[in-house]
Amino acid sequence: MTSPSLSASPVTVVVRYFASARAAAGTEEEKVELAAGATVTDAVQALRELHPGQLSRVLDAASFLVNEVAVRDRGRALGDGSHLDVLPPFAGG
């Protein structure tokens, strides 16, 4: 039997913002440190706290990619060095 680590290291996630998410966050990309075992939901909450205001509205409607794969389960854990892309709804024609 193995015992869990008493002090798991935090993970650093690279967040990339696109279109209106970039404008709302005021940056194209940033690194966010999260607790070990953090999920996409945890990351989104951290982004709301880092950028109160308009980004919160964008996050409500956004979809996300983790390491360029669409997120279907926001309970998915993020590993150290993961990329989280914030994609607001796009109009097209």
UniProtKB/TrEMBL annotation:
Pfam families per record: ThiS
GO-annotated cellular components: molybdopterin adenylyltransferase complex
BP GO annotations: Mo-molybdopterin cofactor biosynthetic process
Recorded coiled-coil stretches: none
Any one GO molecular-function label of the UniProt entry: nucleotide binding
Similarity field: Belongs to the MoaD family.
Keyword annotations from UniProtKB, A to Z: Nucleotide-binding
Domain of life: Bacteria
Protein name (record): Molybdopterin synthase sulfur carrier subunit
InterPro entries linked to this entry: Beta-grasp_dom_sf, MOCS2A, Mopterin_synth/thiamin_S_b, ThiS/MoaD-like
Organism, scientific name: Amycolatopsis rubida
KW Protein biosynthesis (keyword) present: no
